[in-house]
Structures are given as structure tokens and as C-alpha cells.
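TICKET: design request
STATUS: open
ATTACHED STRUCTURE:
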């Protein structure tokens, strides 16, 4: 059976995922956990002078958090955990109400690399945020989460498409507008539904960032419940592990050798090119400001950054039992054998030998295993926020991740032990030499 400590972590991860159907909910869940650990939110318009202890900044679907106890020298280097909060899914268009052949439907746009067949014939809810009219011409943001079987993207019956299984192709399945009722399109119907769920009036809603999510709860799978199955394992596994590591680092005594940082970005699945993505100056500005808030100079900031190191944590590919030829023959990670260190000499990952050594050392201190990962030379290699962070800040970076199957699916799989291993390793990384 899965060891008890890792099972406890896995149970908590599943609770975190259930509460986080959108990037905005993931940030809210992370912030709530950090506040319980004694962290406090700072706003960009606040005066940060003299700020010490645990702090975090929220911007939309991104969160930057760090811990610098009183007396920490301003030049103390950073140990950064980089993650992302978004997952591929179906997002609701600005004019959503549509219909076809007597069925009322919702217009959606495909976000990120979605394997569309995994979204067919699933019970779908709605989550995200509403931008509401506020007092004095301001706007307020409010989260909405409808965990009800409200929509469904119906698959065409095999009797009407005998070639549906040929190569598992999806070219004929491009009609992804979900159905949710019978009748003609009714303007404002969806708006009224989501506004009611957010306890708002429809005329208060000025805009939205809404998406669909599978309402089937996450859980365990396998003869000995040795696997986790859930939506959004990519990349809430890493976000949750980073929050766990950062909260644990805040309980350490004495002057820290490093300032632990969690950077949970949004929009990684579509290139990170936004004000909340890894290509933005968000992390750089927040960390620089944290140095000056503690009385640091430009020289202190340069020293803190020069000594910094980043672990970019994202999901990785476990070897697929039915398609083993798609993997490198000598690098075939398996679940429950520890996180992978991802290497690509063409810099799709930022890992080099010093990064491997740094991560391996943290694994030894945590008593956790790890595995190397390299893509098959004949297959295009994915990427993550690691190279973006390395290029943006000029800091050493290593790309790592929990191995799993069905990446980007509406329901992914990983080992039940590995998220606990990752959290323990990240905890050792941010607190020890």
C-alpha cells in the first residue's frame, strides 16, 4: 500500500484540486493555505516598506509568495519554485448563447493543447471569475463555481460515423459546442445562470473569464489505490507541492540561507505571454521590490539574484505501456519512482549538470528518489516555464516534474506517492544547502 505520509499528502492534494477548477480558484486556494500559515497578502498599491515574514501577491490567475523573516539580509539569495495554475480546457466565448437543430448550446473556444476526445460525453460545470460593476466606477472580481452536470459535448454515435476509431482521429469532431438545454438560443441565458451562482445580478456583470470543468471528483485508482486520477494534475500537483514547501519553510528557525519563493504563473499552456505569465516582468518586479522593502540597494538586488536558483516544476511523461516506442528507449519514467529531471540539449528545458546536481542533492536530503527524462529524438519536445524564467531573470534553473499518463486530458493519471516526494524535495530545496 502507499506509505501513510504520502497518502496524507495525496488526500490533501485531491482536496486542493476539487477546490481549484480554474486558475483563479487555484490562486484563491493557495492564498487561503498561505494565510493559515501566517502569510499576508500585499497589494501593488500598498507601501511595502519594512515588510518581513510571509507575504504574497495575487494578480488574476498568478501568485508570487515568499518568506523573509525579520533580520534577513537584503542580499539573501532566492530559492524559487516555478509552477503554473492553468490547464488546457474549453473556455466560454463573450457571446455564448447559441443553438443548433433545436438544441440550446454554449459557444466555447479551445484553450491550449486539448485532446478533444477526452472532453466528449463528460458532465461539465462552469468556473472562473466575473468582472462586476462596483461603486464609484470601479470594478470588482468575484469567483464562480458551478459543480453541477450543466453541459455536455455529445459524441457522434458510431452508427453515424463508422470511421470514428480509425487512428483515433478527431478531424470530424470539431463541433465542440456543448449542449445544455432544448430550444432556440436565448440571449442572456448563460449570464443569468452564472450571475445567480455568484450571487450577483446580470446587469452587474461587465465581463468574464469562464471555462468548463469536468465535475467528476478526483480520486484513487488501481488494485492498491496506487494512482491518482483527476483533472488538472498538470499542473496543480506542482502548485500544491510548492505551497506545502513554502508553508513548511516558514516554520524553520534561525536566519535563513535563502529566501524561499513560490511563483505560480498563469497562461503557461498558451505560451506564458501575458501580464501573469512567465514571460512578464511580474516575478522580477515583485522580488526586486521585496529587496528594497527590506532596505536593500540595487547592489543587494543584484547579489540576491546572482545567487538565486529556480526549480521549474511541471508534469512530465511517464512511459506509456501501449506506445513505448514514442519514448526514449533509455529514459522511461514510471509512476511512484520519484519526480523526473527533464533534460533537452536544445534548451526546451533549462536543465544542465549543475541543475541536476542541485536537485539530486535535495532528493538525497528528502530521502526521495528521482528519475531522468529525455524526449525521443524523433518526437518534438515540449517545454515549460523553466527556460522563460532562466532567460528573464538570468538565474540557474532546473526543470522537473511528476511523471504521469494522459497529459492534458480531461482526466489525467499519476502515482499516488510522487506528489508527496515532490513536496518533500521542494521543501529540502528551499531550506537547505
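STATUS: resolved
RESOLUTION: sequence designed for all positions
ATTACHED SEQUENCE:
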Amino acid at each position: 500500500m502507499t506509505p501513510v505520509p504520502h497518502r496524507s499528502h495525496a488526500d490533501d492534494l485531491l482536496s486542493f484540486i476539487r477546490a481549484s477548477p480554474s486558475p483563479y480558484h487555484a490562486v484563491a486556494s493557495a492564498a487561503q493555505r498561505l494565510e493559515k500559515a501566517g502569510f499576508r497578502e500585499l497589494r501593488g498599491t500598498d507601501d511595502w516598506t519594512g515588510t518581513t515574514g510571509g507575504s504574497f501577491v495575487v494578480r488574476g490567475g498568478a501568485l508570487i509568495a515568499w518568506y523573509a523573516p525579520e533580520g534577513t539580509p537584503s542580499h539573501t539569495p532566492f530559492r524559487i519554485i516555478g509552477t503554473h495554475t492553468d490547464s488546457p480546457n474549453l473556455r466560454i466565448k463573450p457571446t455564448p448563447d447559441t443553438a443548433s437543430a433545436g438544441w440550446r448550446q454554449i459557444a466555447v473556444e479551445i484553450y491550449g493543447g486539448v485532446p478533444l476526445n477526452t472532453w466528449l460525453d463528460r458532465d461539465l460545470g462552469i468556473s472562473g471569475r466575473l468582472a462586476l460593476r462596483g461603486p464609484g466606477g470601479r470594478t470588482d472580481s468575484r469567483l464562480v463555481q458551478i459543480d453541477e452536470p450543466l453541459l455536455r459535448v455529445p459524441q457522434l454515435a458510431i452508427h453515424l460515423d463508422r470511421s470514428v476509431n480509425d487512428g483515433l482521429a478527431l478531424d470530424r469532431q470539431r463541433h465542440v459546442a456543448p449542449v445544455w438545454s432544448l430550444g432556440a438560443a436565448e440571449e442572456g441565458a448563460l449570464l443569468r445562470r452564472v450571475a445567480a451562482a455568484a450571487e450577483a445580478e446580470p446587469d452587474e456583470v461587465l465581463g468574464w473569464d469562464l471555462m468548463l470543468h469536468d465535475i467528476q471528483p478526483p480520486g484513487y485508482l488501481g488494485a492498491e489505490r496506487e494512482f491518482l486520477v483527476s483533472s488538472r494534475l498538470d499542473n496543480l500537483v506542482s502548485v500544491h507541492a510548492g505551497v506545502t514547501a513554502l508553508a513548511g519553510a516558514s516554520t524553520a528557525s534561525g536566519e535563513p540561507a535563502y529566501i524561499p519563493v513560490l511563483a505560480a504563473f498563469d497562461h503557461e499552456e498558451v505560451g506564458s505571454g501575458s501580464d501573469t505569465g512567465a514571460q512578464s516582468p511580474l516575478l522580477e518586479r515583485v522580488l526586486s521590490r521585496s529587496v528594497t522593502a527590506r532596505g536593500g540597494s540595487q547592489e543587494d538586488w543584484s547579489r540576491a539574484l546572482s545567487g538565486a536558483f529556480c526549480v521549474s516544476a511541471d508534469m512530465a511523461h511517464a512511459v506509456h505501456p501501449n506506445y513505448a516506442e514514442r519514448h526514449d528507449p533509455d529514459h522511461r519514467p514510471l509512476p511512484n519512482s520519484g519526480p523526473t529531471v527533464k533534460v533537452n540539449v536544445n534548451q526546451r528545458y533549462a536543465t544542465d549538470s549543475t541543475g541536476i546536481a542541485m536537485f539530486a542533492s535535495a532528493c538525497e536530503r528528502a530521502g526521495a528518489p528521482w528519475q531522468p527524462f529525455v524526449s525521443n529524438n524523433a518526437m518534438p519536445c515540449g517545454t515549460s516555464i523553466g527556460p522563460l524564467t532562466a532567460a528573464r531573470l538570468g538565474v540557474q534553473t532546473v526543470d522537473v516534474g511528476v511523471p504521469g499518463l494522459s497529459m492534458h486530458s480531461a482526466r489525467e493519471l499519476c502515482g499516488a506517492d510522487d506528489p508527496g516526494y515532490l513536496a518533500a524535495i521542494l521543501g529540502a530545496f528551499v531550506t537547505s544547502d
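CLOSING REMARK: Residues 272 and 278 are 5 Å apart (CA to CA). Confidence is low (pLDDT under 50) at residues 169-173.
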